[in-house]
Write a structure and sequence with these properties.
The chain has 11 helices and 8 strands. It is an alpha/beta fold. It is elongated. The protein binds 1,4-dihydronicotinamide adenine dinucleotide (NAI) and (2S)-3,4-dihydro-2H-pyrrole-2-carboxylic acid. (2S)-3,4-dihydro-2H-pyrrole-2-carboxylic acid binds next to helix 7.
Amino acid sequence: MKIAVIGVGNMGGAIMKGLAHGKQDELIAFNPENPRVDKLAHELNAQRIVKADELLAAQPDLLIFTTPAPITTKVAAQFAQLQNALVLSAAAGVSIQELKAAMPTASVSRMIPNIPVAVNAGTIGLTMDPNLDEDRQKQLRDAIATLGDIIDVKEEQLDIVGTVGGCGPAFVDVMMDALSDGAVMEGLDRQTAYQIVASMVKGSGALAYATKEAPAILRDQVASPGGTTIRGIAALEKAGFRSALIEAIKASCGE
Ligand SMILES: NC(=O)C1=CN([C@@H]2O[C@H](COP(=O)(O)OP(=O)(O)OC[C@H]3O[C@@H](n4cnc5c(N)ncnc54)[C@H](O)[C@@H]3O)[C@@H](O)[C@H]2O)C=CC1
Ligand SMILES: O=C(O)[C@@H]1CCC=N1
């Protein structure tokens, strides 16, 4: 499949890396002049395109939009004449209706991916164009399957899915940074702290995912009676840790 990623910044670059690891797709990086994008395209053996007419001539099968949300419909309008291309937009908050207005004949689906797609461990909320026939739905799903877990949601659920799944990695990064600081304060060297924290978060996620247990059940398995963990949990409660996370989700949702 010929896949063009439109806007190769943090998310577009992560998607290109994930796609390049996974399959033998023909990849195109479409972005204004930028040496960083040239370097990435070279590393991933992807075609580099800067001009809209060149992308039109390349006739991609799938366009993935990872341009800044406020300009995505304007960018999309440049490709309105592409026939038969599938369109998948990752632009947060830009509706299928808005995208369809820019590309009236295109089949438009939306997703909210997250940065771990770069290592094929992403979480992707997907709203598929309901008018796509089964074969084309399968084509689209197969094209992104290598990026991580796909969770089908209604379009009205994409914002909250995008907040937890899409913004969430940054919240976890803040937590990992703080845990590492704590370890360094207790005398551990920083690189070892980062390694332990990343491995611990990976394992905690894997366990929760595999068992489908409620996080509170898993927490209770760690907190031995009279032990060290419950003292740490009490300190977290005192500092308002859970409340801070709930507030973070609300703030990212625009409340
Ligand atoms: N960063 C993330 O974790 C996530 C981002 N998204 C969505 O992905 C999109 C991009 O976000 P980021 O990668 O974080 O931003 P970014 O600023 O890192 O990347 C945007 C890229 O678009 C390029 N660009 C600007 N104007 C362009 C144009 N006219 N044509 C083609 N490319 C153009 C920029 O040069 C840049 O490389 C946004 O719509 C955002 O909502 C969605 C989920 C998660
Ligand atoms: O910060 C943002 O707006 C994007 C959407 C989800 C994650 N990053």
